[in-house]
Amino acid sequence: MTTNVPVIDAHPTVPGLPKNYLNCSRGFMSWAGTLDHKRIGIMYLIGTLLTFLAGGVFALLVRLHLWEPHGMLFTNEKYNQIFTLHGAFMVFLFVIPAIPGALGNMVLPLMLGAKDVALPRLNLLSFYLWLSGAVLATLAIVLGGFDTGWTFYAPYSLYTNQAVVTIGLAIFLLGFSSIFTGLNFIVTTHKLRAAGLTWFRMPLFVWAIYATAILQVLATPVLGITVLLVAFERLYHIGIFDPRLGGDPVLFEHFFWFYSHPAVYIMVLPAFGIISETVSVHSRKPLFGYKLIAFSSLAIAIISFLVWGHHMFTSGQSTYAMFAFSFLTFFVAIPTAIKEFSWVATIWKGSIALNSPMLYTLAFLIIFAIGGLTGVILGALNVDLHLHDTYFVVAHFHYVMMGSIALAFFAGLHHWWPKMFGVIYDETLAKIACGIIFVGFNITFVPQFIMGSQGMPRRYATYVDEFHGYHQVSTIGAMILGSGVALMVYYLVASLLQRKPAMENQWGGVTLDWQTPTPPPLENFYAPPKVTHEVYDYSTLDLKTLQRPVS
Amino acid sequence: MIALLTQDPQAPVNYVANPAPAPVLDKWGQLPELASTFDHVDGLFYFTYIVCIFFFFLILGVLLFSVVKYRRKTWDQPAASNVTHNTPLEVVWTVIPLIIVMVMFAWGFKGCLDMTTVPHEASRNTYVATAKQWAWDFKYPNGSTSTNEVWLVVGKPVQFYLESTDVLHAFFLPSMRVKRDIIPGRFQSVWFTPTITGEFHLFCAEYCGKDHSRMYAQAHVVTQAEFDKEPWNPPIDETNLQSLIENGKRIFGQQCVTCHTVNGTGSVGPTWKGLFTKQGDQYVGRQREVIEGGQKKTITVDDAYIIESIKQPDQKKVAESPYDRNTMSSFANLDDKRIKCLIAYIKSLADN
Amino acid sequence: MSHDGHHSVVIPAPGPEFVPHTVAHHFDTPVQEFQSLKLGFWLFLATEILLFGGLFAAYFYYHDLYPETFREGGRLLSWKLGALNTSVLLASSWTMAMGVRSAQTSQKKKTLIFCGLTVLGAAAFMVVKFFEYKSKHDHGLVIFTELFSGYDEAAKQLPWFKDYDGAMANVPHGHMFFAIYLTMTAIHGIHVLIGAGLILWIMKGTAKGRFHAGYYLPVDLVGLYWHLVDLIWIFLFPLLYLVP
After folding, report:
1. Residue A199 to chain B, least CA–CA distance (Å)
2. What is the CATH number of domain C29-242?
3. Among A28, A157, B25, B167, who pairs with A152 as Cys (CB 3.0-4.6 Å)?
4. DSSP of B274-295, one letter per residue?
């Protein structure tokens, strides 16, 4: 893509400072009532980072409790509430909304050369639905908490004497927040592309967000109706999930995973999108196998609707169902493997800048290799019967969710931070933090793989003695990981206070998001951009502009 | 929020009562030593493991090599190559993984068929495992029962019918590579053939509420001769007080310890310590406030009260939080002899 | 919003009784705006269908599990009232379509009349629904006043399902049919009410002259929504009332 003459050279020479989206208006309402996708993205960023920190605190409490086999801090009941809070906050309030809500909102219209998303009011509504969900989830804690696990399996979620209806309502609202975000991005991608930006000139982040959006729109309503039915079941006992009334709890599992498996890809596809961008920009090399990556995103989106049964291999499904679900589970591994290989091939013979976004990206590539490969182990039917619901599964999905998705989110955050705020963080601290997070993460979860294959079941407040050593190592790792995240938060906040100016095009990107001023003006581009080159064509990069700091 | 994060004033009694010794690990140190005939689980596990390690180091190697060799040394250094795709390479890295995962799929499916097809020998040796919050009841083919411990015969295929009286549970014997969800209202079963004698963990693997982690049973795999002695039903000498107390202690450890303690701290249910005090040779029951039919009243603890509390637990509820709202399921299946043991054990707590 | 020197596109009004429409600042052309909103709305309708899809899946699953319950339960519903409601909704879909057509041809008065008729149809539907619910209440099949009383653990009984006539005594889990009937028709009823509210909002805009041949998109979209509400009922009616 990109234009022959970078648009940044076409700045109108406005006397005084040109206004950007951050300083063009002031006051509480200019944010709370904003329709600007960038400001909404910033609000999402603050919100999701806060919920991430809250979820992280819950995680540390879980790990501290497990320091001793009999549990160190809590009664079993409270431990159950805390691991539930950790899961629910991380999944519904952070991992699902974070990348589309914060980075997608910020970057997608820039990459498309659009002035805004197609439906700005709906975009703001999405944010407020997210906020209401977050407030309700917090309210549920005040009302006594909930101890069902983030999966809300019936019939326990129907019998437990806790605030399940409140958190159910929260998830319903969060679901619609996610649906509206996805809907908005689909329309934006279809209708608001800049002149010359054909489908195969779109950056892969856009492709990934687009595939995610399809999943958000098509899978999330099923979650909505499922939590509604659980709420109805608790309020007036329909009976459809309650075995006392002739209902079948397994139907709940089917409903839940029909959403929640695609949800795994709602979480991970945007992360793939970020990595596609950072790998290319920081290797200054066109992405290897662009079309195959784009199509693999769509393939994943479609196949992911057909593999939900692999969460239920032990529930006594028919042999035919097991056959199909296992087959498709292995099959969906292929487009994922293609992506990983393509990223590695992109780095090969590139011009590799070892800056902090790239370090986070490399950490992602290593951790995701483990996360993905251990998923293959779990896809095998007979092996899964042994590993299902053990710490092996816990470690596997943390390698995907925390190690891959959160690290990709951090990579994207560091990558677009200068674009968002026009300032650059302390690069040395950033590299140190990335190292601490990488080391801490692996120390936390490698022992969990070992424990799990030896039979340590998940969601245990207490455990038998032989797992003591592994749990202690894991807890130490979690503390290291936590301190790395704390350091990251510190230098990111500090960068906003110190205001060390970033470069106009900090990393030398050639997609449209790097062709606007930094930070971008209210409507993103001073003149409508026109795309005349293929995507990731670094021969068009004007190296002179790289050294120009923002005004 | 603050209340949520602080520890309950009642000290948690949070540990499984009677854990089996740690299982011996197999020679690779990854899985517990296999104690059933399902060796294909281990075979496929290690096959996938090796494939994963190969690809992991392949990726890691290429990454490290590239980072060292192609590191950007000057700020304007272009990429060493601008290749955008290579169709043969892409076909290779699509097709080879596809072949490998299809092998894994077929292997896994075949193993799964083995694990779900119950052979005749197993269906003639059928146990019933009833899961409830938070204990396991086992019924042997001859109709006798035990709780939180189960005895199996080495080399003899066995099938378990799995029942739940309340919520979801899962029957998980790591050493046997066996796991199955237990779903109220649905027929579920597992089978396996134990191949070595010893004690093994039997966990609940599906989250089932407060004491999920303490829902534990020990599986004893013994020889046929041992099994025939019905070790779950040791003889009780009713004339010997010491035998009664020891059996009472054993039954407590199997059935009651999930919710009760004998050390004075409360758990799900009230502690047993202090129910009686010793005055001379006599055991005197304490006064206790209970709720019966909605009425609060004070009673004196005696044998009849304990028997009633075991058989109809919610008849008289201790009028003290949280016991007034926690419910206990009936243990009416305990015979008089065993209840006598328990009473003797409870009284013996006053001895020192 | 500052427009940085961009001028938004304005669609002129076809007559003095109408007001012009300003295309939102981030769209370049009216066509782009029209297509974007329409695509977005179709996607939203897809989510509605999937939401009901969950309910339909539950219906089919339990119909398969307890066929007699659904057969006997269905007999207790009045297919005549159901048919009446079906024709009311079908007719209201026609008036809605006419309302959209009138807006497209800038016929303000006709738009108001047809939209008004549609709202009347919605009201008639809800009145019939009320009498249906009342009959279920009187027979103890869905006792609305006891709906939230909880499950009676000791008696193993649902307070809201007493079945005074014993009509469901011979089938397993008789409450199941009525629970699903209630849940599906109630969620559908809420959609009818939302639809009626949206049509009233359209009428307000029409009265102000906001919708005309140059800009009738909101009328169009609300019309689509109303047809979806109708369509879902077209599936609910045979499944609940006619299948026995």
Report:
1. 17
2. 1.20.120.80
3. A157
4. TSEEEETTEEEEPEEEEEETTE
Nearest-by-Cβ selection for C54 from A35, A226, A523: A226
Distance separating alpha carbons of residues C9 and B178, to the nearest angstrom = 68
Query: Which one of B116, B204, B212, B218 makes the best mutation probe of the A interface by having the most chain A beta carbons within 10 Å?
Result: B212
Chain centre distance of CA B184: 17
Q: CA A127 to CA A115: how far, in whole Å?
A: 19
For the cut 60, the answer to whether the pLDDT of residue A15 exceeds it is no
Domain ranges for chain A: 40-546
C147 to A424, A503, C159, C183: CA distances (angstroms) = 59, 64, 7, 12
Structure tokens that stand for A468 in this block: 């003591």
C-alpha B196/C-alpha B33 separation (Å) is 10
Q: How many H helices and E strands in chain A?
A: 19, 0
Chain A 91-130, residues with CB within 8 Å of chain C CB atoms = 114-120, 122
SS3 helix, strand, coil % of chain B, rounded to 5?
35, 25, 40
pLDDT in tens, A83-103: 999 999 999 999 999 999 999
What fold does the segment set B120-228 form as a domain? Immunoglobulin-like (2.60.40)
Closest-approach residue (CA) in chain A for C145: A236
Q: Which of A172, A179, A236, A244 to mutate to test the interface with C (most CBs of C within 10 A)?
A: A236
Model pLDDT, residue B349: 87
- Judging contacts by C-beta atoms under 8 Å, the chain A residues touching residue C147 are 235-236
Q: What's the CA angle centered on A409, arms A407 and A415, to 5 degrees?
A: 105
pLDDT value at position B133? Answer: 86
Residue A281 has pLDDT above 80, yes or no: yes
Report ipTM for this prediction.
0.91
Interfacial B residues in 16-45 facing A (CB < 8 Å): 16, 19, 22-23, 25, 30-32, 38, 40-41, 44-45
Query: In Å, how far are A274, A362, C173 from A367, measured between CA atoms?
Result: 15, 9, 50
- CA of A195: which chain C residue's CA is closest? C28
Q: Which of C126, C96, C136, C119 is nearest to C186 (CA)?
A: C126
- Please state, in angstroms and as integers, the Cα–Cα distance from residue A423 to each residue in A123, A486, C110, following that order: 26, 20, 59
The answer to whether B118 faces chain A, any CB pair under 8 Å, is: no
pLDDT, averaged per 10 consecutive residues of chain B (352 residues), comes to 44 62 88 93 93 92 93 86 89 93 93 91 93 90 87 95 93 94 91 94 93 91 92 82 86 80 81 87 87 87 90 86 80 84 89 74
To the nearest whole number, what is the mean pLDDT of chain A? 90
CATH code 1.10.760.10 for B241-351: yes
Q: Give the model's pLDDT for residue C192.
A: 96
The domain limits of chain C are: 29-242
Chain B nearest-CA distance from A457, in A, is: 5
Q: Would you tell me which CATH number, out of the four given (1.20.210.10, 3.80.10.10, 1.10.600.10, 3.40.50.10700), belongs to the domain A40-546?
A: 1.20.210.10
Cα angle value C75/C78/C84 (rounded, 5°): 140
* pLDDT at position A215 over 50: yes
Q: Which of A54, A29, A36, A15 is nearest to A420 (CA)?
A: A36
Is the pLDDT at A414 greater than 50, yes or no? yes
**Of A511-525, B115-129, B242-256, C217-231, which gets the smallest average pLDDT?**
B242-256
Within 8 A of C44 by CB-CB distance, chain A residues are 183
Structure token digits, residue B106: 């077929």
| Helices of type H across B117-235 | 120-123, 224-228
